[in-house]
Specification:
eight-stranded parallel beta barrel; TIM Barrel
């Protein structure tokens, strides 16, 4: 049986890790380099680094911070933020990323997904989707959740896979930072239309939420969270032992 992955997420703004609720009310948490080192030593399966305001501010990703983070870890690193061209892919990979996450850049230019998959391989291309319910419909948002694109999330997930994305990160704006559990309804709907790995993001508040996620939706491959890990409210190894007790396989160090 394939092990489930536990992935901390570093949302970076102005060179610092921050966290908010429903993509708003952002507050400072910690230095990303020290936090990356901590997660590497704690047994995280992967690490995600998002420069959350790069697209909105129309600037390049914090490559200097990314290099420092990459130099501290020996687990796969996914990087996103203002990725709008193959040159951005190339630079992120040369700075130490293993996978590159596209969101707003892919919405503006969907062919970026296929071009990157052709050049670097689908395993390198992660389609990140910020999704919110609008009039009862799962809708894709851009620019860090600030802009309603009007795009149907299920159609966009299917198209992303067809274009060559090797993995999806599904970020629920509705449950982000609320800590009442993952958005199972949204994740199930997207899981029914794609076959690539899905990383669930948004809503984790305790170990039981991960248990419920993986038991309810076996097609989900990984759970991503930020604040409960950053604030040391839940240890990654403690979480993995809870998963094991519930018959859910994970990598325990």
């Amino acid at each position: 049986m394939i092990t489930k992955r536990i992935i901390p997420c570093l949302d970076v703004r102005n060179g610092r890790v921050v966290k908010g609720v429903n993509f708003e009310g952002i507050r400072d948490v910690e230095d990303p380099v020290g936090l990356a080192r901590f997660y590497n030593e704690s047994g995280a399966d992967e690490l995600v680094f998002y420069d959350i305001t790069a697209s909105f501010e129309g600037r390049a990703l914090f490559y200097d911070v990314l290099k420092d983070v990459a130099g501290q870890i020996f687990i796969p690193l996914t990087v996103g933020g203002a990725i709008g061209s193959l040159a951005d892919f190339d630079r992120a990979l040369k700075c130490g990323a293993d996978k590159v996450s596209v969101n707003t850049g892919a919405i503006k230019n969907p062919s970026l997904i296929s071009e990157a998959a052709k050049k670097y391989g689908s395993q390198c291309v992660v389609l990140s989707m910020d999704v919110k319910r609008v009039d009862g419909r799962f809708t894709v948002f851009a620019k860090g959740g600030r802009e309603n694109t009007g795009i149907d999330a299920l159609e966009w997930a299917k198209r992303g896979e067809e274009l060559g994305a090797g993995e999806l990160v599904v970020n629920s704006i509705d449950t982000d930072g609320v800590r009442n559990g993952f958005d199972l309804e949204m994740l199930e709907a997207i899981g029914e239309v794609v076959s690539v790995p899905i990383i669930a993001s948004g809503g984790a508040g305790c170990a039981e939420h991960f248990v419920t996620l993986f038991k309810s939706l076996p097609k989900v491959d990984a759970g991503l969270a930020a604040s409960i890990f950053h604030l040391k409210e839940l240890g990654i190894q403690a979480l993995k032992h809870t998963l094991k007790q519930n018959g859910i396989p994970s990598r325990i160090i």
